[in-house]
Amino acid sequence: MGNRGMEDLIPLINKLQDAFSSIGQSVNLDLPQIAVVGGQSAGKSSVLENFVGRDFLPRGSGIVTRRPLILQLVNNIAEYAEFLHCKGKKFVDFDEVRAEIEAETDRITGSNKGISPIPINLRVYSPNVLNLTLIDLPGMTKVAVGDQPADIEHQIRDMLMQFIIKESCLILAVTPANMDLANSDALKIAKEVDPQGLRTIGVITKLDLMDEGTDAKDVLENKLLPLRRGYIGVVNRSQKDIDGKKDIRAALAAERKFFLSHPAYRHMADRMGTPHLQKTLNQQLTNHIRDTLPGLRSKLQSQLLSLEKEVEEYKNFRPDDPTRKTKALLQMVQQFGVDFEKCIEGSGDQVDTNELSGGARINRLFHERFPFELVKIVFDEKELRREISHAIKNVHGVRTGLFTPDLAFEAIVKKQIVKLKTPCLKCIDLVIQELINTVRQCTSKLNSYPRLREETERIVTTHVREREGKTKDQVLLLIDIELSYINTNHEDFIGFANAQQRNIAANKKRAVPNQVIRKGWLTLNISIMKGGSKEYWFVLTAESLSWYKDEEEKEKKYMLPLDNLKLRDVEKGFMSTKHIFAIFNIEQRNVYKDHRQIELACDSQEDVDSWKASFLRAGVYPEKDQVENEETVPTDTFSMDPQLERQVETIRNLVDSYIGIINKSIRDLVPKTIMHLMINNAKDFIHSELLAYLYSSGDQNSLMEESADQAQHRDEMLRMYHALKEALHIIGDITTNTISTPVPPPVSDNWLQDSR
Predict the structure, then answer these.
(1) Which residue range forms the structural domain that includes residue 455?
(2) Contact predicate 17/148, CB 8 Å
(3) CATH number, position 436
(4) What is the CATH number of the domain that holds 587?
(5) What is the 3-state secondary structure (H, E, C) of 254-268?
(6) DSSP-assigned letter for residue 208
(7) Measuring CA to CA, how many Å separate 275 from each of 210, 281, 282, 546, 672?
(8) 493 class by beta-carbon count within 10 Å (0-12 exposed, 13-18 middle, 19+ buried)
(9) Taking every annotated instance into account, which residue ranges of this chain make up the domain PH (predicted)?
(10) Is 112 within 8 Å of 144 (Cβ atoms)?
(11) What is the reported pLDDT for 732?
């Protein structure tokens, strides 16, 4: 072997294997290793036991190895074994090792003969071994026995493939000498994944059991049925030797004697036997690791980079640092404040493309939901006219008035302004809900400290609830201010002269004709008998609602004029996940084909509110909320006095104009009030006062207690991170100028292909 660094390679790979096995599959590195494959009873386990010099593997008939055994041999003065699943426990008695392998196998696979791909990690320290890592795999079989599943052959084959298909895996193909080599299952499966023979090493067992007068000389000399890396012959203990507890050291001496004394093998005795096989494997694995170093290094670096971000937050949390909890608390609160602000104000980095953030949802409430709620309470026309009529009569009292009384106008306007309180308070409630959801979303990063998360949520939510009262008081104050003085000199107010001349139809202003207000997909719900629900591309303009087959807008399905249309809510069906609203004609005419109304469905309530807001802009109002253009007023409702009718009409127009001004003002001021008193205040509170509240809320140590899961996850991540860093460090120290044996030249192995 070359420099000292190369001798560290196999232990290094062992360390990585342990670190990654204990942590799970989060780091998917193909570490260099040797997989032992062969048919059942080919002598695979005996070869491994000969390496160790101890009996420690389960024995018996049929399938004995039922889980992969990752066997790490470490050259060491003391002799003992360790399992990864029994951390800290040293096994000195190798009979106990066998019992533990059997128990651990049964724990996963059950006591029948089933198999499992979950490996058992066993490390053996001994002065008799060279550094080596092997994987003992279940023997290939053709027939299921006992409780085994019928497809046991395929299950074992799939498991072997998981290991040997990796370029980083050397294949030790074990074949008994007393069977036809051309039919060797081990060599066939190796050929499938390694057609060039670069990774396959042949092992011939049971040379002492060949028929008298026959030998495997030509095979071992690589003349007959050649392999690129050739074959090594070994002689294992017989079943009689095993049953008689024949010492492995004695068996190795007998093996040496066999090769030296056998006329066919004595000239190559130095290249045969278990010690030579172990030395060759050690060399081959070391060379193989060296060859795969560049690729391994780049994989380690990419894994390290991907972990870097996750480990960043753990780096400062040193258990021996007394200020760790204080630092963590400050960092967490600071990060929470930044996240909350980004959620509300918006941010260019890490934009969520899946759903709207808190700020975007609040913006939607302000500019779509709130205006819609205001319009919804625009007033029942018949009731309003009746109230105006009563107000005029009550103002005049016993007299008959010649002029339209402004007191009646004021009384009606004030009554309508009071109705604005409900949607304003509802808007505040909706914003509070969004704020609390945003707080919960931002505290998700504090999951590692459950008490801190709980306290942070409680303190911020309590503060938001406290601000709720002040905000509602302020909004109600705005409405009280509007009630306190009816400003008929407002520049947008139409005044008495214009009100008398204006008719109701003029009030029904629409947006610019043919102006497209909105486009988007909606589901058109028609009764199941007539085709059920279908998605169409809808285009809403100022004058019509059209729908097309798709967004190319080439194939128009229908165009519905907006005259006399209104909206109403529809309860979603028991099994439906969609949110529905309907469009209908106030004159009871069919809207589409023979349907009195059409139902339109969206994926969320937000989409419904957004579409309703778009319909408002097009002049399509919710049910009972639009000014109805009634030319004739029922005789039982109002007096037929023409003068009174004119006065009612005038005040109706005045009320409409003034309420329009108030709506505009409220639509502008309520969001500003909420922003100032609640949202901006919550941001300031989090930045400047939250920390003080947390300190005063209880013991800092209990606040910063990690959850058990988090502590475990952190430890695993840090262990993984340091394992990767250490591996890179060791790899960095190793020169690539190591002396190594070149790969042998290719040989013709058509014999194997032909046999398949």
Answers:
(1) 336-503+641-704
(2) no
(3) 1.20.120.1240
(4) 2.30.29.30
(5) HHHHHHHHCCCCHHH
(6) G
(7) 22, 10, 11, 86, 85
(8) middle
(9) 515-620
(10) no
(11) 67
504-516 CB burial, b ≥16 within 10 A, e <16: beeeeeeeeeeee
The domain total for the chain is 3
Q: How far apart are CA 441 and CA 435, in angstroms?
A: 10
**pLDDT tens-digit series, residues 48-102:** 888 777 878 887 665 667 788 888 888 888 889 988 888 778 888 888 888 888 8
- Give residues with Cβ within 8 angstroms of 680, minimum separation 6: none
Specify the DSSP class assigned to residue 594.
Answer: T
Is 50 exceeded by the pLDDT of residue 625? no
Q: Token digits for 669?
A: 């001021």
Listed residue (360, 526, 385, 369) closest to 437, CA to CA: 360
251 plus 344 within the same structural domain = no
Residue type, 290: R
Give residue 87's identity as a one-letter amino acid code: K
The pair of structure tokens assigned to 32 is 């260099």
Q: How far apart are CA 134 and CA 200, in angstroms?
A: 14
CATH number for the domain harbouring residue 270: 3.40.50.300
As a whole number, mean pLDDT of residues 485-491 equals 83
Taking the chain, what is the end-to-end CA distance rounded to the nearest angstrom? 38
The identity of residue 296, as a single letter, is: L
Tell me whether residue 30 is in a domain.
Answer: no
Contact 156, 109 (CB under 8 A): no
Burial class (CB in 10 A: 0-12, 13-18, 19+), 278: buried
Residue matched to tokens 């062992």: 14
**Where a domain ends, among 272, 299, 326?**
299
